[in-house]
Design goal:
Layout lengths: L1 E7 L4 E7 L12 E6 L3 E6 L4 E7 L5 E6 L14 E5 L3 E5 L5 E7 L6 E4 L5 E6 L2 E6 L2 E7 L7 E4 L5 E6 L2 E6 L6 E5 L4 E6 L5 E6 L4 E6 L15 E6 L8 E4 L5 E5 L4 E5 L7 E5 L6 E6 L5 E6 L3 E6 L4 E6 L4 E6 L5 E6 L3 E6 L10 E5 L4
Parallel strand pairs: 29-33
Antiparallel strand pairs: 1-32, 2-3, 3-4, 4-5, 6-7, 7-8, 8-9, 10-11, 11-12, 12-13, 14-15, 15-16, 16-17, 18-19, 19-20, 20-21, 22-23, 23-24, 24-25, 26-27, 27-28, 28-29, 30-31, 31-32
Length: 372
């Protein structure tokens, strides 16, 4: 594992996304890294040196979220390559691959902090305050409004038909084409982060008061204790975090969720029934601020408030650590799991190349990385 390139943006990095090579005829042969900043600009970087290719001002105020439309190859996908962005100016916008404005979808009076596509790229959801907007392409499918709760996190189910939203003291499930949501979980405190297990049969919610809550759908044959009927559900509560659970990511192929609420990572194996089994990982000395599984699940990356970056095997063995110069705000793998990018609050971006088979290597300690 070695550093590919590092650049400095004018202000804090707020979001990073990889655009695969050959997305369309404009993007060229190289994959591109899209970076959003607190200055409202979006920039694209490519090549061995991460040269800046495009830059445009997307929002007045910071960019709060950046989502590249998924374009799965199977079934055949005729959707154009589109980038969605949300900002502190209350706008949700669609952009083409050259940074041209395709459409302004929404103009809210408050920040739009939450933005997500379905896995097939057909539907887009955004949340601002108590409003949830839905679009199919540029067509509005309406707005859901919750008079009692502000949306603090949201995530599409893998089937693209259900949208989970986390609000103060609860988790709710909305059905596309429906109106009133179904409440799945009740818990004390406010949610911070939310994620679906890849099979769509479990949801994990990290809360402000240091709990991990898991909703788990019971199998038809098994039923669920406490529901009194088959096909019910159960709720697990994991305690002991010293701080808010602000990071979580499900393993792409196992029923395991990586979490952080303080300086330790905790891997939870969630069985079909019964309690979860924790595995703590300890290398960080300050609060973990970002974590992400590689697309194949072979590696896990984490980073903290002091800028320390750690790469772990899927079993939790430490493989490499290095130090950046500022708090890491986000981390994102490319589609081939051959590189990972980290964005920092001082505006720096670092891309790390991952060698094939790195998941079976030995731990190494790298020196502090210096900006170029």
């Amino acid at each position: 594992m070695q550093e590919r390139w590092r650049h400095q943006l004018p202000e804090a990095v707020t979001a990073l996304r990889w655009r695969p090579a050959g997305t369309d005829r404009h993007s060229g042969a190289d994959e591109e890294l899209l970076a959003a900043g607190a200055d409202g600009w979006i920039r694209t970087h490519a090549g061995a040196d991460g040269a800046e290719r495009l830059a445009w001002q997307a929002h007045d105020g910071g960019v709060t979220n950046l989502c590249l439309r998924p374009r799965p190859k199977q079934p055949a996908n005729d959707l154009p390559a589109v980038l969605a962005s949300a900002g502190e100016d209350g706008r949700v916008a669609l952009w083409d691959t050259r940074g041209g404005l395709v459409a302004t979808l929404a103009e809210e009076s408050s920040w739009v902090e939450h933005l997500t596509w379905t896995g097939d790229g057909r539907l887009l959801a955004a949340a601002a305050g108590r409003s949830i907007h839905l679009w199919r392409g540029e067509e509005s499918l309406g707005v859901w409004y919750d008079a009692n709760r502000s949306v603090l996190a949201l995530a599409w189910a893998p089937d693209g038909k259900r949208l989970a939203t986390a609000a103060n003291k609860g988790l709710h499930l909305w059905q596309v084409g429906g109106d009133a949501p179904v409440q799945l979980l009740q818990f004390p405190g406010a949610p911070v982060v939310l994620g679906w297990r890849p099979d769509g049969k479990a949801l994990a919610v990290g809360t402000q008061d240091g709990f991990l809550q898991v909703w788990r759908q019971a199998s038809r044959s098994q039923g669920s204790k406490g529901t009194g009927r088959k096909g019910g559900s159960s709720q697990l509560t994991m305690r002991g975090y010293p701080a808010k659970v602000s990071c979580l990511d499900w393993h792409p192929t196992r029923s395991r969720v990586a979490t952080a609420g303080g300086q330790d990572l905790v891997l939870w194996d969630i069985p079909a029934a019964g309690e979860g089994k924790p595995t703590p990982l300890r290398l960080h000395h300050t609060a973990v601020t970002a974590l992400a599984y590689a697309p194949d699940g072979a590696l896990l990356a984490s980073a903290d408030r002091d800028g320390r970056v750690c790469i772990w095997s899927d079993t939790g063995a430490p493989l490499q650590s290095l130090s950046l110069d500022a708090e890491v705000a986000c981390a994102v793998w490319n589609a081939e799991a051959s590189a990972i990018a980290f964005g920092c609050t001082d505006g720096s971006i670092m891309v790390l190349d991952i060698e094939p088979g790195a998941g079976s290597g030995q731990h190494s300690q790298s020196k502090r990385s210096q900006p170029s």
